[in-house]
Design a protein that fits this description.
Layout (H helix, E strand, L loop, with lengths): L31 H7 L1 H26 E2 L9 H17 L13 E4 H11 L7 E6 L2 E8 L7 E13 L2 E11 L2 E2 L2 H7 L4 H5 L3 H10 E7 L2 E6 L3
Antiparallel strand pairs: 1-5, 2-9, 3-4, 4-5, 5-6, 6-7, 8-9
Helix pairs in contact: 1-2, 3-4
């Protein structure tokens, strides 16, 4: 008869006051793949996304400040002669000793006349400046930059024009850089100034206005120059 199987050995008993003996596995080391996906690489992706967003926001802001040059129409010879008859007397009168006499009832100059004359004169203003006439005010828009440049800085503004107690009043009521208006507090301050006073500091222009022009009316699409009353 074979010997019976010996009973299993009891677990080791820790020394008195000690902690039980346990078997522990060493902690897993983070692999380089996880760092790439969730650590360093993740930060790089965030930086790239933020850079792209910032670029598109910046480009959108720049587009809101710029515009293409104005198209320049070809002025026919007949139209050129018509514009010369309209504007040449004013230019000559400022250099002449004789006052310029307006016809009875005044002289009407259309918005189209002004813009065509700007294009006819050529130079850097031909594709850079246009005006619009509305009752009591003149709106201008400038697109400024180097010749041949596509994206021009766009500046526009509105001037109120009326006859005040002291004579001609021209007040700048709004200025915009691209689509953004200047702060209202700034506009409230400069709108109190009469731009006509600065224009009249030119002796020739002052003489021309005082001797020839009795008043100016701005209507929709045209300006009326009124003669001086007798």
């Amino acid at each position: 008869m074979s010997d019976p199987t010996p009973p299993p050995m009891p677990p080791p008993v820790p020394p008195s006051g000690g902690t039980p003996l346990t078997t522990t596995k060493p902690p897993k080391k983070s692999g380089g793949k996880n760092c790439l996906l969730y650590g360093c690489g993740g930060c790089g992706v965030v930086v790239l996304v933020l850079s792209l967003v910032g670029y598109f926001v910046f480009m959108s802001f720049m587009r809101s400040l710029t515009a293409d040059p104005f198209p320049v129409a070809e002025i026919s010879e007949a139209r050129s002669e018509e514009l010369d008859k309209t504007f040449e007397p004013f230019i000559a009168a400022q250099e002449s000793e004789e006052p310029f006499t307006l016809p009875e009832g005044g002289m009407r100059i259309s918005e189209q006349d002004i813009n065509d004359f700007i294009m006819l004169e050529g130079g850097e203003m031909a594709d850079s400046l246009r005006v619009q006439l509305q009752e009591g005010q003149i709106t201008f828009e400038g697109r400024f930059g180097d010749a041949g440049q596509k994206d021009r800085v766009k500046v526009s503004g509105t001037m109120a024009v009326f006859q005040g107690a002291a004579g001609l009043e021209i007040q700048l009521t709004d200025i915009q850089l691209g689509k953004f208006s200047l702060p209202q507090a700034f506009m409230d301050e400069i709108s109190q100034e009469n731009i006509a006073e600065d224009m009249l500091e030119d002796p020739e222009f002052k003489k021309f206005i005082q001797e020839s022009i009795g008043g100016i009316e701005v209507l929709d699409g045209e300006i009326i120059l009124l003669p001086k009353s007798e």
